[in-house]
Specification:
Layout: H1 3-18, H2 25-36, H3 49-64, H4 69-78, H5 87-100, H6 103-109, H7 111-114, E1 121-125, E2 142-154, E3 166-174, E4 179-183, E5 193-195
Helix pairs in contact: 1-2, 2-5
């Protein structure tokens, strides 16, 4: 944490208060977090172990039901509804913190939750190979398949951002026997697959 920058922010907070426009503590915390937290740090590091466990269980439950977990929380917030045991995210951390969470942040704490294994049944979206639009001719569909291999790969070409140089590739097999390779299955294609309700089969 840059103490000079923090001091500058604190001085700005004092000026707002002197001008009769004080920021509330949550607004101050959001600004401090946004400007003083390194961009590459894991937002989940800020959670207590109990909060992390609650969040990871929520993510897994929502994904098993085919619902994007962030969308569920945001819908609660927009409708002014309680998020139950997940309310701590809104009350203590806020929207900016939530927005920073990426799949690799979750994976750092949830190897078991997010890691695919050979034999797992998942559903993949046709948006992996088709241009899908909400109101277009091709709509999002989910197809059941089985994981046949998972491997790590790295490409250190200068044109590739550091955060994407190493990624996980997953090969899946559909019921008709055809196979498909998903690159960046956790890193940039996480939105395009979900756990199948028949995963234990």
């Amino acid at each position: 944490m840059d103490s000079a920058f923090e001091a500058a922010l604190q001085a700005a907070f004092a000026r707002c208060e002197a001008a009769g426009l004080p920021l509330d503590p949550q607004q101050q915390q959001i600004l401090l977090s946004a400007f003083l937290t390194p961009a590459d740090s894991n937002p989940l590091d800020q959670l207590t172990p109990d909060q992390r466990s609650t969040l990871l269980a929520f993510v897994r439950e929502q994904e098993q039901q085919g619902r994007p977990w962030k969308t569920q929380l945001l819908n609660d917030w927009l409708q002014g509804q309680s998020s139950g045991e997940m309310q701590f995210v809104r009350d203590q951390y806020g929207l900016q913190w939530l927005d920073r969470i990426q799949t690799h942040h979750l994976a750092a704490y949830a190897e078991e939750t997010l890691t695919l294994k050979v034999g797992d049944r998942i559903e993949v979206s046709n948006s992996l190979w088709e241009w899908v639009q909400e109101d277009g001719p091709c709509q999002r569909e989910w197809i059941t398949c089985r994981v046949v291999s998972v491997s790590a790969a790295c490409d250190t070409a200068a044109s590739i951002p550091t955060s994407y140089q190493c990624y996980t590739t997953c090969t899946i097999r559909f019921e008709n026997g055809s196979e498909y390779e998903i690159q960046g299955v956790y890193e940039w294609n996480r939105y395009n697959w979900r756990w199948s309700g028949a995963n234990q089969a």
